[in-house]
């Protein structure tokens, strides 16, 4: 019998296509095959992990008749635990798919996965493996070969011409099976289909990510461009109390091409490009807009306030960081040291020298 730590049940679920917005337009009159717009999201049900990093190679809607549509292409390493912790549906792609019914969600993963439990600081570098039990020809079980792993998740999704459909891949981190008796450790999972918009009704918010351009501070507006999508972001409801010096931070993000994330209170798909109104919910402070910068630490000041360092990246680019808020929130991960590589999640600017970090992770 395997000496595994059982965290077992229904780890990956399909939140089936939920028509949240009508986008008008039907291709049937154009003489070309009818299609509809599909937005794809990822999220999770948070388990006992501080970090779960994996790489998606492809996510496709499929039908046993042969119809298929890729809704997520190669997606770099994503920390699914972070999504569940902050109750986020992360928009990763928007594409057009042929209309009609689909009855499978095909998911392909890189074999490697990195885990870090909330109760320990040790990171586990593991590999996905085929499910330990049962017939791997049946749907909803992980199967691995030649360095990749795949899932065929059952669940009906019907794409209707002229609608804007929303599909989310929900990874339930509470229910991995992790075998630490081997090296590298092994991870596997089962899946179960789920048809619901439960995440949104439970308070999950949509998040979009990309790079900043066309910043117009007087209008509290900028353009955010990511993989497969472009949005106008309206942030007039974000207060200076929550995010001081936000315009200065956004200017730096635009200048240096820093990855920026916005948590949307609402998304208006009727505008072109769609408009995300940044979150104004006071119960989620410091989380409407976040800018991430990664580099090498220098000039670390950790003995007396203010706690600061300089982050060095690019061709001689230096970013002065105050990480006092990260300390307050217990969001400093790893040991800060000069010459260490770290990623800072920034939320504002102090008005004089330093950009403000609410989270710092040593790589």
Fold and architecture overview:
There is one protein chain. This protein is mainly beta and 363 residues long. The chain folds into 2 domains: 4-201, no CATH class; 206-363, Copper binding periplasmic protein CusF (OB fold (Dihydrolipoamide Acetyltransferase, E2P)), CATH 2.40.50.320. The chain has 4 helices and 25 strands. The strands form 2 sheets. It has a 15-stranded mixed beta sheet that branches. Strands 1, 4, 5, 6, 8, 9, 10, 11, 13 and 14 form a 10-stranded mixed beta sheet that branches. The longest helix has 11 residues, at 246-256. It is globular.
What is the terminal separation in angstroms?
36 Å
Along the chain, the helix and strand elements come as: EEEEEEHEEEEEEEEHEEEHEEEEEHEEE
User: How much helix, percentage-wise, in residues?
Assistant: under 10%
Give the number of DSSP strands. Answer: 25
What overall geometry do the principal axes of the alpha carbons give?
A: globular
Low-pLDDT ranges: 1-31
Mean pLDDT: 77
Q: How many structural domains does the protein architecture include?
A: 2
Supply Rg.
21 Å
Task: Tell me the number of helical segments per DSSP (H or I, 4 or more residues long).
Answer: 4
What share of the residues does DSSP label as strand, in percent? over 45%
């Amino acid at each position: 019998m395997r000496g595994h730590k059982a965290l077992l049940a229904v780890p990956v679920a399909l939140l089936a296509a939920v028509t949240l917005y009508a986008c008008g337009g039907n291709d049937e009159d154009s003489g070309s095959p009818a299609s509809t717009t599909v937005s794809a999201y990822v999220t999770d049900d948070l388990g006992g992990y501080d970090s779960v990093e994996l790489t998606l190679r492809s996510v496709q809607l499929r039908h046993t008749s042969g119809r298929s549509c890729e809704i997520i292409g190669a997606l770099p390493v994503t920390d699914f635990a972070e999504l569940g912790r902050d109750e986020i549906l992360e928009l990763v792609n928007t594409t057009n798919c042929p209309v009609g019914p689909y009855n499978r969600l095909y998911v392909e993963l890189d074999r490697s996965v990195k885990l870090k439990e909330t109760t320990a600081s040790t990171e586990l570098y593991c590999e996905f493996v085929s499910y330990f039990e049962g017939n791997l020809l049946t749907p909803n079980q992980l199967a691995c070969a030649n360095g990749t792993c795949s899932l065929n998740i059952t669940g009906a999704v019907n794409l209707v011409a002229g609608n804007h459909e929303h599909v989310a891949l929900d990874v339930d981190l509470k229910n991995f099976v992790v075998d630490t008796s081997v090296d590298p450790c092994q991870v596997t999972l089962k899946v179960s289909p789920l048809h619901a918009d439960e995440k949104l009704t439970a308070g999950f918010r949509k998040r979009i990510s990309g790079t900043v351009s066309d910043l117009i501070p007087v209008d509290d507006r900028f353009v955010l461009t990511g993989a497969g999508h472009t949005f106008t972001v309206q942030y007039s409801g974000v207060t200076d109390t929550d995010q001081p010096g936000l315009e200065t931070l956004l200017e730096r993000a635009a200048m240096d091409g820093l990855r920026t994330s916005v948590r949307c209170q609402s998304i208006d798909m009727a505008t072109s490009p769609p408009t995300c109104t940044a979150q104004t919910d006071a119960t989620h402070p410091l989380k409407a807009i976040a800018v991430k910068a990664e580099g090498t630490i220098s000039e670390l000041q950790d003995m007396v306030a203010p706690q600061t360092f300089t982050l060095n990246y690019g061709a001689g680019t230096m970013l002065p960081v105050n990480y006092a808020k990260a300390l307050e929130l217990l969001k400093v991960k790893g040991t800060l040291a000069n010459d260490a590589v770290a990623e800072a999640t920034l939320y504002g600017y102090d008005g004089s020298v330093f950009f403000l970090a609410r989270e710092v992770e040593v790589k």
